[in-house]
Amino acid sequence: MEISMLKKIIALMLLFICAINIYGCNNSQNIIDEGKNNTSEKSINKIFDKTIKDLSLTGFSWDNFNIETDDPVFMSGYHEIALSDKGYYFIHSEILYFMDKSSNKCIPLCSKPDCSHEGKDLESCNAYFNFNTFDAASGLFYYNSNLYILGNDGNGENGLGKGLYLYRISYDGTKRERVCHLLDISSSASDMGLRILIHRGIVYLSYSEENKSTLCSFALSDNKAELKTIDTMEGKSPEFYRLKGYDDYLVYQYFYYDDENLDSFSGGIKVFDGKNKQVLIKDAIKSYCISDSKVYYETSDGIKIYDLKSKKTSDFKAESNYFAINCDGEYFYTYNSELDSSYEVNVYDKKYNKINSLKSLEGYGELCFGDEKYFFTENKYFNKSDLRKKNVQWKNITDKYYNIEQDN
Questions:
Q1: Rounded-to-integer distance, Cα 381 and Cα 198, Å
Q2: Are strands 176-183 and 380-383 parallel, antiparallel or unpaired?
Q3: Which site among 33, 37, 49, 114 is 20 to 30 Å from 89 CA-CA?
Q4: How far is Cα 324 from Cα 408, in angstroms, rounded to an integer?
Q5: Residue 253 confidence class, pLDDT cut points 50, 70, 90
Q6: What is the greatest pairwise CA distance in the chain?
Q7: Is 33 helix (H, G, I), strand (E, B) or coil?
């Protein structure tokens, strides 16, 4: 009798232990699954998301910005203008120009005294960047006293070559070299939706082929460019874009259509800390910026503010008809993202008080924004010391050498 009772007790104990183990295994599996994909939407990611512990993303501020190594997130996300401590670099009509900060003079970046920078002199001109070889649309970057741009090998007819390479140009334009081979591309750069970013020693690259998009990275010091995959998507027209470097994080957007008829789509903002990535905000596929631990992002209902500390969302309470937004650490700029006849920019201080409206900008070209000194469009600029004045003094980028008018 005692033996029978002992057997029953042992059996019950074993059953209880098994139940605990089964529950523990299932609970652990739930935690792992949450780490793999922390979104409620149907995921098409192949590299699973994991929650970033102790996320300390604060956004842009001039106090922690290093012009030699950091992404100038206050500029346009297309990186038309590369900033250095001495001035600004940009490419116009296949010519690389440099605008000196102190004198405001803008000249082709060519050291040859007799070069006309056009016609028969183009092939030997240091400032000439054949668009059949170089992909200026992907951006121009300044990093540690050098410029960087994407391009092919340039060995084909009229400079139309194969492969995708990262090129390095010396700050004075006298040297130009291929740093490393990146991809064997099967289509043009524009068809691949190429995006590139250089931030704190890391090169980030996103591209799409057929119905797959890839986001990867490699160390700039790595001349072999061993690409490490950060994120992938498969689906209808997937894309990673608006790559931005904030603090030690990469922030980027993702987008894809949910169905073949292109009737609905999914997307949002993600953050990557060098090891893990996670969705920061869903349904945010248009403009965004980060400042003072807050994410400002464009929606069809207006500009929203996501507080990274409180995890709460609120409205950007400003009288603006325009939902696209950018910030430079000092001011916010809202603007209409679709160019039309009423193209204008509204300017707000950090307390969201409207301080100016830059109106009638039709014909000024794409907005490039600017640094602490100048505000740029493609063909005009003004000094930000005039930003609070009723009528800012726009200056033209003029002359055949793009000479910029002097400040008074």
A1: 25
A2: unpaired
A3: 114
A4: 32
A5: very high
A6: 112
A7: helix
- Note whether 1 and 51 are same-domain residues: no
Say what the pTM is: 0.83
Nearest-5° Cα angle at 108, 399 to 123: 115
Tell me how many domains the chain contains.
Answer: 3
Q: How far apart are CA 5 and CA 256, in angstroms?
A: 64
**Average pLDDT estimate for 384-403:** 75
- For 2, residues 6+ apart whose C-beta sits below 8 A from its C-beta are none
Reported confidence tier of residue 378, pLDDT bands at 50, 70, 90 = confident
Rg of the chain over all Cα atoms, to the nearest angstrom: 26
Q: How far apart are the C-alpha atoms of 125 and 94, rounded to whole Å?
A: 11
34 φ, ψ (degrees, to nearest 5): -65, -35
Q: So what's the pLDDT on residue 40?
A: 33
What six digits make up the tokens of 52?
Answer: 């970033």
Q: Is the pLDDT of residue 182 over 70?
A: yes
Among 273, 280, 321, residue whose Cα is nearest residue 297: 280
How many Cα atoms within 13 Å fall on the side-chain side of residue 359? 5
Angle at 89 between CA 86 and CA 93, to 5 degrees: 155
293 and 280 in one domain? Answer: no
> Which residues touch 1 (CB under 8 Å, ≥6 apart)?
none
CATH number of the domain encompassing residue 60: 2.120.10
Per-residue CA distances from 203 to 47, 196, 246, 296, 386 (Å): 19, 7, 14, 25, 36
User: Do residues 143 and 153 share a domain?
Assistant: yes
Cα 92 from Cα 110, distance rounded (Å): 14
**In sequence order, what are the beta bridge partners of 314?**
305
For residue 85 the two structure tokens come to 């401590």
| Residue at token pair 């292109």 | 262
pLDDT for residue 367: 86
Q: Is 333 within 8 Å of 308 (Cβ atoms)?
A: no
69 pLDDT exceeds 90?
Answer: yes
pLDDT tens sequence across 107-122:
899 989 899 999 999 9
Parent domain of 358: 286-408
Q: Which residue has the tokens 């640094």?
A: 371
- DSSP codes, 298-366: EETTEEEEEETTT--EEE--S--S--EEEE-SS-EEEE-SS--TT--EEEE-TT--EEEEE---TTS-S
pLDDT > 70 fraction of the chain, expressed in percent and rounded? 81
